[in-house]
């Protein structure tokens, strides 16, 4: 598919629109307390009815509009995206009908053993796996008692067997919950092509009862790891890369840190997010999204593109940089992470 010259749009802070995260479903087969606590989202919680989810046609048109505005990287998220029926078909269509250069997916891995091969065959480039602990009991606790560590590790093996090599593994670190297992995870994945990325526990949404005391600053983790295996900082792959990268001096691989709390990176944030029901969010911590379905209902691609461009040009989000100056209790509710993907 040929690419027309993409128009570059920048927001009020001069940040170009480069990355899109698309949530294809809001449900999940886990109940991670920091994202979808069981107490708020019991088994029969009323998630979006299937009829209100964006169709694959909608998604293709949205992605074509975003790519015409400079987006080259697309991440498929959820909830848990592997729960969306016929997902490999969507991946195949994105490959054939859009010019996205980097097509990635974030999953909790529970269904990965079944989908790794079909996703690879459909043209998916990369997988990011969320895996917070290698201790079965802590893993159970951090997935709301829903997940099987063994099944997730089998999914990882299946992804490697399917041809996904350097898999990014996101570890959300919470003090007193899983931080004591960080060195075990590093030891397990050193000398493999996989890249562990330690994420500082964030105040996403309004239901995870976030406390600053439970945040383990990246610096502290870095010192813990470097005391055992010396590390050296390495250049980011591109402007706006989320993780700060480090390599082991002994050549045993790479790790990263996502520092939204201790070292915010809003200045280079080029990410837009689309919720499962078609709202555009310009920040992970946004309260309001803009419903794009009125433009999707028309067939005028230029109008959809114009609407997105204007919304991005009005953007001034930098929540993480302002966090400490914001009132403890914000008026209004932040969007929940499971509705727009991390
Ligand atoms: S807080 Fe918002 S603006 Fe800042 S890096 Fe995160 S998503 Fe981007």
Describe the protein.
The chain has 342 residues and is an alpha/beta fold. The protein has a single domain (3-340), classed as Alpha-Beta Barrel (TIM Barrel). It has 11 helices and 12 strands. It has a 12-stranded mixed beta sheet with strand order 7-8-9-6-5-4-3-2-1-10-11-12. Helix 1 (56-67) runs parallel beside helix 2 and helix 1 (56-67) crosses helix 9 (301-313). The protein is globular, with a radius of gyration of 19 Å. The chain starts with 18 loop residues before the first strand and ends with a helix. The mean pLDDT is 94.
Which descriptors apply to this entry?
single chain, about 350 residues, alpha/beta, TIM Barrel, 12-stranded mixed β-sheet, 12 strands, about 30% helix, about 15% strand, binds iron/sulfur cluster
Q: Overall mean pLDDT score?
A: 94
Number of helices: 11
Domain module tally: 1
* CATH top level assignment: Alpha Beta
Distance between the termini: 29 Å
The largest sheet is: 12 strands, mixed
> How helical, in percent, are the residues?
25-40%
* Secondary-structure-derived class: alpha/beta
Q: Helix-strand pattern, N to C?
A: EHEHEHEHHEHEHEEEEEEHHHH
Poorly predicted ranges = none
């Amino acid at each position: 598919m040929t690419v027309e010259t993409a128009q570059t749009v920048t927001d009020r802070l001069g940040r170009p629109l480069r990355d899109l995260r698309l949530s294809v479903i809001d449900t999940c087969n886990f109940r991670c307390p920091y994202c979808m606590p069981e107490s708020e989202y019991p088994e029969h919680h009323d998630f979006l009815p299937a009829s209100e989810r964006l169709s694959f046609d909608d998604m293709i048109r949205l992605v074509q509009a975003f790519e015409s505005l400079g987006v080259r990287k697309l991440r498929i998220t959820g909830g848990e995206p592997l729960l969306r029926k016929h997902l490999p078909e969507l991946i195949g269509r994105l490959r054939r009908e859009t010019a996205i250069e980097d097509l990635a997916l974030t999953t909790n891995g529970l269904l990965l053993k079944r989908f790794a091969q079909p996703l690879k065959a459909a043209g998916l480039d990369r997988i990011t796996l969320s895996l917070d602990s290698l201790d079965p009991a802590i893993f159970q606790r951090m997935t709301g008692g829903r997940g099987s560590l063994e099944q997730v590790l089998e999914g990882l093996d299946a992804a490697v067997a399917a041809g996904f090599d350097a898999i990014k593994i996101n570890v959300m670190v919470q003090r007193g919950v899983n931080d004591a297992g960080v060195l075990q995870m590093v030891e397990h994945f050193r000398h493999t092509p996989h890249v562990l990325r330690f994420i500082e526990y964030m105040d996403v949404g309004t239901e995870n009862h976030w406390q600053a005391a439970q945040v383990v600053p990246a610096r502290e983790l870095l010192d813990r790891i470097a005391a055992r295996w010396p590390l050296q900082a390495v250049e980011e792959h591109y402007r706006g890369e989320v993780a700060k990268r480090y390599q082991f001096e002994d050549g045993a691989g790479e790790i990263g840190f996502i520092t939204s709390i201790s070292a915010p990176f809003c200045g280079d944030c080029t990410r837009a997010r689309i919720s499962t029901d078609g709202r555009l969010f310009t920040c992970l911590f946004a309260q309001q999204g803009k419903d794009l379905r009125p433009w999707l209902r028309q067939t005028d691609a230029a109008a959809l593109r114009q609407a997105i461009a204007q919304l991005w040009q009005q953007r001034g989000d930098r929540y993480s940089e302002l966090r400490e100056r914001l009132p403890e209790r914000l008026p209004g509710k932040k969007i929940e992470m499971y509705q727009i993907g991390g």
